[in-house]
Write a structure and sequence with these properties.
By secondary structure, this protein is of the alpha+beta class. Helix content is about 65%, strand content about 15%. It is built from 3 helices and 3 strands, in the order ααβββα. A 3-stranded antiparallel sheet has the order 1-2-3, covered by helices on one side. A hairpin with a 5-residue loop joins β2 and β3. α2 runs antiparallel to α3.
Length: about 160
């Protein structure tokens, strides 16, 4: 009779599913919650930065806005790339000799500076969003992988 009881105990341990402790379940849930929080913070932060950048792009002027022209410009000189000398702010109109007209109006200068400041701010916002998204994505993926590894390592204990 003693043998029969031992056999049933051995069979019970083989068919019995291992129980996972409450500590492992809670810790894994906390890691998954951290994953979700990292994901939400990344998404919201990048969205806000991009919205801020789009606000600046509303101030970027059209094609007829003043730009930079050069008195002397060439594609190649002695095998070296473009040489530009004598920059000045010009408007899109051409004079009799088909050169751009220099601007002397304060409004044109203001429009030129505003456009370039807005463009620079838009580029900066995009760069910040990319950096935030990269760091946030790495944190999200790291916490998700951490939760999976922790669960697999401690499952059944």
């Amino acid at each position: 009779m003693a043998k029969a009881k031992t056999t049933t105990k051995a069979q019970d341990t083989k068919t019995k599913k291992p129980k996972t402790s409450m500590r492992v379940k809670v810790s894994t849930c906390l890691l998954l919650l951290l994953t979700v929080i990292f994901g939400i913070l990344t998404w919201c932060g990048a969205s806000r930065i991009m919205a801020h950048g789009r606000g600046y792009s509303a101030f970027i002027a059209t094609d007829d806005a003043p730009g930079i022209c050069f008195e002397e410009e060439s594609d190649f000189i002695n095998g070296h790339p473009t040489t530009r000398k004598g920059p000045y702010v010009c408007i899109t109109e051409n004079d009799e000799s088909y050169e751009r007209v220099r601007t002397t109006d304060a409004n044109d200068y203001t429009m030129f500076l505003s456009e370039h400041i807005s463009f620079t701010s838009t580029i900066e916002s995009t760069q910040l969003a990319i950096i935030l998204f990269t760091i946030g994505l790495m944190s999200t993926i790291a916490s998700l992988i951490g939760a999976i590894v922790y669960w697999n390592h401690n499952h059944g204990r």
